[in-house]
Amino acid sequence: MAETKDKxxxxxxxxxxxxxxxxxxVRKRPGMYIGTTGPDGFHHLVTEIFDNSRDEAMGxxxxxxxxxxxxxxxxxxxxxxxxxxxxxxxxxxxxQTKVSALETIMTTLHAGGKFGGEGYxxxxxxxxxxxxxxxxxxxxxxxxxxxxxxxxxxxxSRGKKxxxxxxxxxxxxxxxIITFAPDAEIFGSxxxxxxxxxxxxxxxxxxxxxxxxxxxxxxxxxTIPDLNGVFYFRDCGVDAPSHxxxxxxxxxxxxxxxxxxxxxxxxxxxxxxxxxxEYESAEIALQYVDDITSRVLPFANNIYNSEGGTHITGFKTxxxxxxxxxxRKNNLIKESEDNFTGEDVLExxxxxxxxxxxxxxxxxxxxxxxxxxxxxxxxxxxxxxxxDAFLEENPDDARAIVGKVILALKARxxxxxxxxxxxRKGALEGxxxxxxxxxxxSKDASxxxxxxxxxxxxxxxxxxxxxxxxxxxxxLRGKILNVERARLDRMLDSAEIKALVIxxxxxxxxxxxxxxxxxxxxxxxxxADVDGAHIRTLLLTLFYRHFRALVDNGHIYIAQPPLxxxxxxxxxxxxxxxxxxxxLVGSTNIVDIEEVETNEDAAxxxxxxxxxxxxxxxxxxxQRYKGLGEMNxxxxxxxxxxxxxxxxxxxxxxxxxxxxxVFDVLMGTDxxxxxxxxxxxxxxxxxxx
Length: 689
Prior knowledge:
With 689 residues, the protein is an alpha+beta fold. It has four domains: 24-245, Heat Shock Protein 90 (2-Layer Sandwich); 251-419, Ribosomal Protein S5, domain 2; 427-560 and 650-656, Rossmann fold; 564-624. 35% of the residues lie in helices and 20% in strands. It contains 22 helices and 24 strands. Strands 1, 2, 3, 4, 5, 6, 7, 8 and 9 form a nine-stranded mixed sheet that branches. Strands 10-11-14-12-13 form a five-stranded mixed sheet, sandwiched between helices. Helix 4 (39-58) runs antiparallel to helix 6 (130-136), helix 10 runs parallel beside helix 12 and helix 12 crosses helix 13 (395-423). The longest helix is centred in the middle third of the chain and has 29 residues, at 395-423.
């Protein structure tokens, strides 16, 4: 009987095949089309509509794009209005679908002008799903088209038209206006991050020379006029925060922006833009700075490729070959000396590589990595020839660049010697783990955790309170070295960093191997004071700069020990913030707040803060923890280490480029820049990671 039942339950026939029509697949599985319904996917809606306008500009048909955030209406989410002065989406009848081309584009997957023909020679959209996907995931959407002397409009709800395309006015303008409100059924109660959109649009303005991009935040405007028939929102006279970007310098301007807080090694920024044929081109800019970190930003058809791709391979090959040839030809390195490696020539380099290709291929739906084979040859030939000429024509710049690379080569050799001295004799296989490390019993990395704690006192408490089977503890003495501008050999002179590197098991530098990570949770547990925050920042800098894969793969966490211990009789409560403490003290299950009298003369010192609250004969005491060492082992276990009770925050990097610039400013050597940044952003700081 059991076998018959199992067969019946596992039946799989034609009845189980679900056919979704129109845009239903998008609403059914939105993550397949925008990656996630979280903040990234939510903001990606704006990018999809903007990309269509930007493609008009890339084709030379538009030069002014405006993005406006508008308040919500009728209980929906905030609206977004995107305007361009391009050709306008066609509104004539489409032969295949028998409806307007506008309706086809807005309501049909894989319909658009980017699959062939002469509509676009180059575009960022490969899959042709942008406008229709945004429409499907919006509770309301309106397209307003200016072309052929008329103004045409059509409205939609959740991907379905609310009426036919209608001519509503006459106009000599050309362009497209798309206004949409994301659907709360899909995205919940999310709101748009204005600064996030501003940063993205600034980058896009650098990538398309001569394109003006404006971003306006009108969500808090006192009044919003009727926008039907209004082209640019900025002409309405509404007072609202806005940013406008326009760059004639293209990628040259972007490199200058990236290096604004850094000291250039050479004066002139290298720049080349060249077409190889009607449909393919490469644009590249670079400058070396006095730093040890490289900043290489790759783009394909104006889409940022966070994982690189074939265009980066071509760039690195040409860069290494050209600098080696120049140095040899001009006797800047001896015949007996080693050639520069790719690692040497990248140190301190800021570069932007942008290719435009008609038949473009990405590896994966997110377009994080370019896969078009031809891109390597395009970049290698265009850049190699132009950079060789740059070095010959600018000998002072050339010698400064080669000098920088020679220093990198010497440092690499010194770092390798230091690294080998630390990691030799199988240290990373566990034969010589640091003496201060209290390792766990488990050899299964997937369940093992490493707590990095501040000081021997907290280390002793953590060792007593841990689960010895899966939790290891590594106490650090004082503040570790700021590695932002420290080379590997100097880093490994630090006993604390050396101990951490060996404990992790991954090695470091060019021999880093994520597969050898001994603990899949690396938990930073520092005190809740200024020194603790500083130590946490130094550790995050180390992980971000030298163990980036640990951050990208979600292995770094921040422990959240409680700030307060609240006792009433035999009952104990823990509060993790001042707000939570206030709520607990004021809640009826602890004490009736209306009858509370607070002892304002309670003693306070650096170790603990005791506040007594009296209600008749009942007594509530509040202890303020300022360090992990102030907790006993049982308290630390219960609140911070017990996997059933604790709260951990995973460290993520939503925007690596912005994070890189923040690390440069806060951990670099430019004191005035750091002071200015802190003064400007102090009020925005939170304890959230």
